[in-house]
Amino acid sequence: MKKDNIDNLFEELRSEFDFENPSLGHQERFLSKLKNQNSETVQKASSQSNFWKPFLSIAASLLIWFSIITLLKPSGEIKDLASVSPEMTQTQNFFTSAISEELAKLNIERTPETEVLINDALKQMKILEKEYESLKIDLTESGDDKRVIYAMITNFQTRINILKNVLETIENVKQLKQNNNENSITI
User: Fold this and answer.
1) What Rg, from alpha-carbon coordinates, does the chain have?
2) FRET label pair with 46: which of 30, 75, 105, 111, CA 20 to 30 Å apart?
3) Which of 39, 25, 140 is closest to 83 using CA atoms?
4) 130 or 184: which carries more pLDDT confidence?
5) pLDDT one-digit tens code per residue, 19-78
6) Measured in whole angstroms, how far is the alpha carbon of residue 114 from the centre of its chain?
7) Is the C-alpha dihedral spanning 97, 102, 103, 108 positive or negative?
8) Residue 139 CB: number of other CB atoms within 10 A?
9) Distance (Å, rounded) from C-alpha 121 to C-alpha 158?
10) CB burial of residue 58 (10 Å; 0-12, 13-18, 19+)
């Protein structure tokens, strides 16, 4: 039934249809106009996109540059033991003053006989100070990790122990020297 309606519709509109054949070269002219229209559209689109490309590349470069600077820049000050709590401030002050006192005593005992011992102790102290600096960075990155705090305290204790051991060794060397002098005088 519907097919009959469509057929009837076409029959009624037949006089309005254009049955003429196009002139020669119509298809080529149509295709060239279509190509011209497409190339104009592409040119407009590409010129608009080309206009923004330099700005987008500059913006992307700046974004990458700022990201790299942000990642490489240290995130503020490096924490030390004193930055954890007031108790740790007292602990750090105690250890630093004790180390300073022991170093002063060590420098007083400097003689040609003790020079090697003192220089070795100072080398060990420098190694421990470098370790402490890396522990400070770890503390900053870890956010007050207790293991890092304990390692920092142990570092201080190790430094003090090294200095005390060297002072005891120097004292033993002095006593041995004094005993040898007394023995050589009495003989």
Assistant:
1) 45
2) 30
3) 140
4) 130
5) 677 777 778 888 888 787 776 665 565 555 566 677 677 777 777 877 777 666 555 677
6) 44
7) positive
8) 22
9) 11
10) exposed
Neighbours of 140 (CB within 10 A): 18
pLDDT of residue 154: 93
CA–CA separation, 65 and 112 (whole Å): 56
Q: Is the pTM higher than 0.85?
A: no
Look up tokens 């503390």; give the residue.
139
Angle at 41 between CA 36 and CA 43, to 5 degrees: 90
Token pair belonging to 141:
């990155």
User: Which alpha helices (H) appear in 73-145, and where do they start and end?
Assistant: 86-108, 115-142
Whether the Cβ atoms of residue 160 and residue 99 lie closer than 8 Å to each other = yes
Residue type, 70: T
